[in-house]
Amino acid sequence: MNKPRILVVEDDNSVKNLITTTLKAHDYHFLTAENGEVAILEAASHNPEIMLLDLGLPDIDGIEVIKRVRTWSQMPIIVISARSEDVDKIEALDAGADDYLTKPFSVEELLARLRVTRRRLQMMKSDALNQSAVFVNGDLRIDYAAGCVYLGEEELHLTPIEYKLLCLLAQNAGRVLTHTFIMENIWGSNWEKDIASLRVFMATLRRKLEKNPQSLQYIQTHVGVGYRMMKFEESSENKKGEY
């Protein structure tokens, strides 16, 4: 797999040097930006495949960078920040970040996060080439064109909200989606944030997907944060193997 070009957005020279030296040692191509406005310009001009983003930038906050980049690009964004509170992580994930690494960090952890992101990029490229209108995950099959959902050979009867929730989770399989992200995508940004209602809809959807103890557990709850769709082998014969 060819290594992607990485945009490093960091104004602290010591941290920037650590990151770029690590990238160079492992044969990654990279470019750098020391503030948010330059980062957005570089992202638009050079089309990097991954962004490593500090939040505490000298001109605009990194959260604003994420929001602006997300208006035209879906490239993976890994936040690298000294902000370690859950509220900061949730805000970054809600804005569209794909991962969050807290300073101080180890070189090994940074490289591991990059390997995971590279695998996701490869899957995204494969999906784009295949252009399949059907999503398959374990025994679950979503026929987007027909608007139908199947669990094994059985068609599931979902409400419109349940179907939208399932499609949103499927399109982001393997990624933790925060409560706010889900509610804004399902009901719109002006909808009153009511996590209790979301939990009710998610519970009814889960009951339809996970009918007995032997069923694959498709939806994982991240308490206080949100939900994630687990990814399984397409064959229903291997019910324990997440990949």
TrEMBL record:
Modified residues (4-aspartylphosphate): 54
Keyword Phosphoprotein: yes
Domain Response regulatory: 5-118
Residue ranges of domain OmpR/PhoB-type in the record: 132-231
Keywords (A to Z) from UniProt: DNA-binding, Phosphoprotein, Transcription, Transcription regulation
DNA-binding region: 132-231
Function: May play the central regulatory role in sporulation. It may be an element of the effector pathway responsible for the activation of sporulation genes in response to nutritional stress. Spo0A may act in concert with spo0H (a sigma factor) to control the expression of some genes that are critical to the sporulation process.
Protein name, per record: Stage 0 sporulation protein A homolog
Species annotation: Hominisplanchenecus faecis
Source organism phylogeny: Bacteria, Bacillati, Bacillota, Clostridia, Lachnospirales
